[in-house]
User: Which sequence fits this backbone?
């Protein structure tokens, strides 16, 4: 019996049913390390190694299947682990597309020769900063690193800069995610570029002191903790705030895009690429084109509350209008060079 995460009511033998048909029938999203992607039928289909959670990718995949009729299976795990898996599998990989929550991993894959460049028909609508060198990969959405606060416990006037979170006044009042979170590492890499190594070290030491043991496994429980008043402030990607208030507008929480008078709010880019050893590159190109189409970009905006990478697709009405806030995109190529520095700082400071 294969160990998988599935919506099926009864367990089943995957080899007997065939992986693609079983996946289509049951909506399977398979965790990294649980199984290999084998026993797939010969019909046109797509295999996506996804570093993003099912709640973010499933609407995109279902819409793509409905639009193209291409069977799509997603194997879900942490982006860094998936990158290692792709490299280890080499020509044997079943993966056609690598989808990540942090484009730094895509740039690492490019530097390791794992990607197959492709210039989408929609590339002209996407700024160069959101595309990899020589179209090796493309951004899919933009996420800002923001400050969430409890309106009854914190004054937003005291939280105008990311560095404010390191101020001693927030001791025992700050919540953060685990430092292994890709957005945490990506945001830290951006901060190293913007502010330098030593300033970022001081920031990390400050938030470690202020957070204490208030470290949450993911952004969603952190948002809930702020709403409950368990902590007064937190550091999150912006879309977790909008998801929360869309579900309950009465939550006593607010959001701050920091450093509007200086650097702008740090951003990370979620993206995707076609793999060098893709077994179905034609289907992979169709998927990348779909993600970057107006329909695909609207799904990121309307369902996930992320900023689209297309110039001609507006963000969700709950989000700030284009041009009304200052975001600070940074070169993903340069960010790769600071990922190791960010991880080194996390280890040096001793963050969980």
Assistant:
């Amino acid at each position: 019996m294969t160990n998988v995460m599935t919506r099926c009511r009864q367990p089943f033998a995957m080899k007997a049913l065939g992986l693609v048909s079983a996946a289509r029938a049951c909506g399977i999203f398979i965790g990294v390390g649980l199984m290999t992607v084998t026993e797939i039928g010969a019909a046109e289909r797509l295999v996506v190694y996804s570093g993003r959670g099912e709640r973010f990718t499933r609407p995109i995949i279902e819409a793509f299947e409905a639009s193209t009729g291409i069977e799509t299976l997603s194997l879900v795990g942490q982006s860094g682990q998936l990158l290692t898996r792709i490299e280890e599998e080499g020509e044997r990989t079943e993966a056609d597309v690598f989808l990540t929550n942090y484009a730094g991993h895509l740039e690492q894959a490019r530097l390791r020769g794992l990607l197959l460049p492709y210039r989408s028909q929609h590339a002209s609508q996407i700024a160069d900063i959101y595309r990899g060198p020589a179209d090796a990969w493309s951004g899919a959405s933009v996420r800002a690193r923001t400050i969430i606060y409890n309106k009854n416990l914190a004054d937003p006037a005291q939280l105008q800069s990311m560095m404010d979170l390191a101020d001693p006044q927030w001791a025992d009042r700050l919540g953060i995610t685990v430092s292994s979170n890709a957005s945490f590492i990506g945001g830290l890499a951006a901060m190293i570029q913007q502010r330098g190594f030593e300033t970022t070290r001081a920031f990390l030491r400050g938030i470690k002191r202020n957070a204490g043991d208030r470290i949450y496994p993911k952004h969603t429980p952190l948002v809930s903790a702020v709403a409950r008043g368990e902590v007064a402030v937190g550091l999150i990607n912006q879309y977790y705030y909008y998801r929360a208030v869309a579900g309950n507008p009465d939550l006593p929480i607010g959001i701050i895009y920091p450093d509007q008078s200086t650097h702008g709010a740090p951003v990370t880019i979620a993206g995707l690429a076609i793999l060098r050893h893709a077994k179905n590159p034609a289907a992979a190109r169709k998927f990348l084109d779909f993600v970057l189409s107006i329909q695909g970009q609207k799904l990121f905006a309307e369902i996930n509350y992320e900023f689209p990478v297309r110039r001609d697709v507006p963000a969700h009405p709950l989000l700030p209008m284009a041009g009304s806030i200052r975001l600070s995109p940074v070169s993903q190529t340069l960010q790769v060079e600071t990922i190791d520095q960010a991880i080194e700082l996390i280890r040096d400071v001793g963050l969980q």
About this structure: Residues 1-42 have pLDDT under 50 and may be disordered. Residues 125 and 312 are 7 Å apart (CA to CA). The chain has two domains: 14-142+268-308, 144-266+327-349. Residues 144-266+327-349 form a domain with the D-Maltodextrin-Binding Protein; domain 2 fold (CATH 3.40.190.10).
